[in-house]
Structure formats: structure tokens, C-alpha cells
Design goal:
Layout (H helix, E strand, L loop, with lengths): L11 E6 L4 E5 L8 H26 L11 E4 L2 E2 L5 E9 L8 E10 L16 H12 L14 E8 L9 E9 L2 E11 L10 E10 L8 E2 L3 E8 L15 E2 L2 E5 L4 E3 L3 E9 L11 E11 L2 E7 L3 E3 L1 H4 L11 E8 L6 E11 L4 E12 L1
């Protein structure tokens, strides 16, 4: 859950004293918090949380959920630490159909086919917060027992104030989730926040199946193929509490993806893919190659357009700092200028070959070149 804090400071200056014809600057103390206003805001927030959770419950139970505006969904999958998988998600919205910039986003990952909330997680004896709740209950005999939340593989609520999109561009919401391998249903709820009294808030609920692979099982495999517009360098990595909002940021680099896989001829097509679990020789070295072949899709079929030279992927090409042991992944990729590509639709075939055991695997991804 994301908490939002705001600190406001008021500064007043230039009070004119006519009697002495001088100017005095002074600092005005911020007004004291209004307990009633704070309580009302807290109640409104809790009501908002309850609303989006109820909408997800409705969809999970198989009942009709609202769909007041379209949500386009796109995701990638990469290996994370501890055997988990990092799932960057891009939601694309039409600004003309979005009811407000103040929206609440609720995300829930549930095991595939689940229709009712799971039982709450068992209390942690070492959890100080849980102990404090019990102590508060002892001190107030009339207080209701604290409600325990159901235990989902992943759950998050965020209060969003969406920025206006550039003319002709959609609004995008990026989030990242980390889950163990498995079959899931992802429920996404977007709910209009702060509607006037008597008005009906707009909302849309999206159910998206997620098949999360096991990248740590020892099988020679790859991540999703990521198609990007550019890679931006950051002054410093994002702090952990902002990582979910920047799911394509890795260290001091942030990938700007193209969710629709559409690129202008003046752009470069940046292709990125991670390779997992290659074979190692007795000296702990590996020997891979990657070939990128482009096919132009035409009426009735497709035709080979061009291909790159095999890209060697060895300890020497990865650099002296690369450690293939543990959770490290072998990074493969190309930046391909599109000036020579005629407008139209293409299929990119990426063939990864492990030369030490003569195994190969192929990944395919479609993209479009526009004027």
C-alpha cells in the first residue's frame, strides 16, 4: 500500500506599517490540524479502499464488474531474486474516455481460478504491530477485533493523480509486481476518486491471466523480449519504495518501452532480452550467440527482410565485472536503425544458441514501422 504525505509551509512577508513607513517580513505558523477534517479524510480513504476491494471481489466471484472506460494491458517477465519473477506492467488509457485525473488503482494477484478470498494469514508472533493491536484490544474491552486481511500472493492500492498526456498521446500507468512462478489471475481496478455527492463514480475492472514461468529451474530459457524506444541514464537508482512505479528501472538505467511495439522510421529499435541457465564448461565459462532475423509481413505470408551477424555472448564480451554464478543473467540486445525498413508490420526472430551443448531456442516478437 502506498501512503501519501504532504507538508505545506506558509510564508507571508511584506506587512506594511504605515506609522513608521517600514516593511517587516514575518513567518506565519501553519494552521493547527483540524481533527474533524483529518478524521473525515481518513474515513473517505478507507471507504475508497473498501470500494476497490469490493469491485475486485465481485470480479473474482465471476459477477459482472464495471467497465466504464477501456484499459489496455501489456507486461514483460524477468527473473528476480529468491526464485521469484519480476512482472513489469503497462496500462494504457485513452485520456478522452478517462473520467478524472484522480484515480485509485488496486491490483490483486490470486491463484488461477480462485473465486473467494483466502483465509487471513496467521499472525506473526514477532510482529510488533500485531502485538500493539492486541494490547490496544486489552485496554479497550469494547473495541472490535482487528480485521485481518486475506493473504494474496500480491496486493497493492495506490492513490493516483494522473498527469495530462501530450497531444495525441495516451496516458500510461506503469507498475511492477514480484511473484513466485505459477498460474495466476491478476485483477486491476481503476476507480474515480473524489466525485461530488450524489454522483456515481466511474470504474473499470480488468481480469488478466498471468502464467509466470520458473526462470530458476535450471532450464535454458530467456526473459520476455523487450522492445524499447530508448534507455535513459539515472543520476542514482530509485529507492526501493519507488521501484514498483518504475518497473523498467534497473540500477542507474531506465528502459523506456514501447507497449504497442510501434516505431517511427527515424527511431532506433532497441531489443533487449536476458538469457538464463546456460551451460558452463569446467572453467565456468559459457559460449552463446544470438542472431536477429527480420521478416516483413505481407498479404498471404511474410518475406525475410534482413538479418544481423551472430552476436557472441561470452565472459569476454560481457566484461570482467560479470559474474555468471548466482542470480546473474546474460544480457543480449541490439539497437537497430529503422531508416531502411519500409513502413509495415514485421516479425523479429531471435535465435539463441548455446554452443557448449548444441542447444538453441527461439523467441519471436512483432512490431510495426510507421512514417
Amino acid at each position: 500500500m502506498i501512503d501519501w504525505f504532504m507538508k505545506v509551509r506558509y510564508i507571508a512577508a511584506g506587512a506594511v506599517l504605515c506609522a513608521c513607513a517600514s516593511s517587516v517580513a514575518y513567518a506565519q505558523k501553519p494552521p493547527k490540524p483540524d481533527p474533524k477534517a483529518e478524521q473525515a479524510a481518513a474515513q473517505a480513504q478507507q471507504a475508497e479502499y473498501a470500494t476497490v476491494i469490493r469491485l475486485a471481489d465481485t470480479a473474482m466471484a465471476g459477477q459482472t464488474a464495471p467497465s466504464d472506460f477501456p484499459i489496455q494491458f501489456q507486461n514483460d517477465m524477468l527473473r528476480a531474486q529468491g526464485g521469484r519473477v519480476w512482472v513489469p506492467i503497462t496500462l494504457t488509457l485513452d485520456p478522452a474516455k478517462l473520467p478524472s485525473s484522480a484515480m485509485t488503482l488496486y491490483m490483486r494477484v490470486a491463484p488461477r481460478g480462485m473465486t473467494t478470498p483466502p483465509p487471513p494469514a496467521a499472525p506473526d508472533k514477532n510482529d510488533k504491530n500485531d502485538k500493539n493491536k492486541k494490547d490496544a484490544k486489552k485496554n479497550d474491552k469494547n473495541a472490535p477485533p482487528p480485521a485481518a486481511a486475506p493473504a494474496y500472493p500480491y496486493e497493492d492500492i495506490a492513490l493516483l493523480d494522473l498527469k495530462p498526456a501530450a497531444p495525441g498521446q495516451p496516458i500510461r500507468i506503469l507498475r511492477g509486481i514480484g511473484v513466485a512462478p505459477g498460474s495466476y489471475d491478476l485483477y486491476l481496478v481503476l476507480h474515480e476518486r473524489g466525485t461530488p455527492a450524489g454522483a456515481t463514480a466511474k470504474a473499470s475492472v480488468l481480469k488478466q491471466p498471468l502464467e509466470v514461468p520458473n526462470f530458476s529451474g535450471g532450464e535454458f530459457t530467456t526473459s520476455s523480449v523487450i522492445l524499447a524506444e530508448r534507455v535513459e541514464q539515472l543520476a542514482s537508482p530509485y529507492p526501493p519504495d519507488q521501484q514498483s512505479e518504475h518497473p523498467y528501472a534497473f540500477g542507474q538505467a531506465e528502459i523506456v518501452v514501447s507497449p504497442e511495439h510501434k516505431f517511427k522510421k527515424a527511431q532506433e529499435l532497441i531489443v533487449l532480452v536476458q538469457i538464463y541457465n546456460p551451460s558452463f564448461g569446467p572453467d565456468k565459462k559459457f559460449d552463446l550467440s544470438a542472431t536477429y532475423t527480420f521478416f516483413k509481413q505481407e498479404a498471404g505470408g511474410e518475406k525475410r527482410f534482413n538479418s544481423t551477424e551472430p552476436q557472441p555472448l561470452t565472459p569476454e564480451t560481457m566484461g570482467a565485472q560479470f559474474d555468471p554464478s548466482g542470480n546473474a543473467a546474460i544480457q543480449a540486445g541490439q539497437a537497430i536503425p529503422l531508416q531502411s525498413f519500409p513502413e509495415g508490420n514485421y516479425r523479429l526472430e531471435i535465435k539463441i544458441t548455446d554452443k557448449l551443448n548444441a542447444k538453441s531456442l527461439t523467441q519471436n516478437v512483432n512490431f510495426t514501422v510507421t512514417p
